[in-house]
């Protein structure tokens, strides 16, 4: 076999992987586009729902404003596009899973799929927690803290950027159990080491809560305590994973003998 033929055979699998990746990216884009087309008609209503936690705490006769000329048109559509990506996350993760699964070992496939499902659920849970629990506290505090004679009226585009930042922040913070399990799974640490670092984790959770929420103890605690509890959940599941992994190794060793 000539070198040219050997190189050609090596290029074929690489090109086929690129084609498959392209096809799956196109499916993701198509899914987001379909969801966006369904939401675009209701973009203004969706934005009004998102602005609800702030509007409830605005003083009487106070409203949100639009500084830029095109903001009333583009801002709701921007929200609809971001929401389309949020809704399409299961499809995005499925396409990712379908692409990488053939190259994984059987035990890795058993581990990654539940992690993908759990991480999606936890991200949505973090977003819901921010909207229903944290937003009312934040906006209640900020509007009440305004100096006398100052009318609280925020720009709609700046409000959207603010809440999207918090959505992503809380969604990522609620991934603590996944991070914990992955750290143990990859061998970077052990459940015993993580348990010893619990005091640092608690302090870190309160520091993150202080940075992401207004300077009041209630909202800071409402973020820090769930993060701590989620760390404990991740620690528990990581211990179960290590125990199961050890049992599988013992079973394999016994069969070999």
Structural class: mainly alpha
Low-confidence stretches: 5-9, 252-257
**Beta-strand fraction estimate:** under 5%
The whole-number mean of residue pLDDT values reads: 81
**What distance separates the N and C termini?**
42 Å
Number of beta-strand segments:
0
H/E series: HHHHHHHHHHH
Radius of gyration: 24 Å
Residue share in helices? over 70%
Silhouette: flat
How would you characterize the overall build of this protein?
- The protein has 257 residues and is mostly helical.
- It has helices spanning 3-40, 43-50, 52-55, 71-87, 89-100, 106-144, 156-173, 176-185, 191-196, 198-212, 217-256.
- The protein has 11 helices and no strands.
- Residues 5-9 and 252-257 have low confidence and may be disordered.
- Helix 1 crosses helix 4, helix 5 (89-100) runs antiparallel to helix 6 and helix 6 runs antiparallel to helix 11.
- The longest helix is centred in the last third of the chain and has 40 residues, at 217-256.
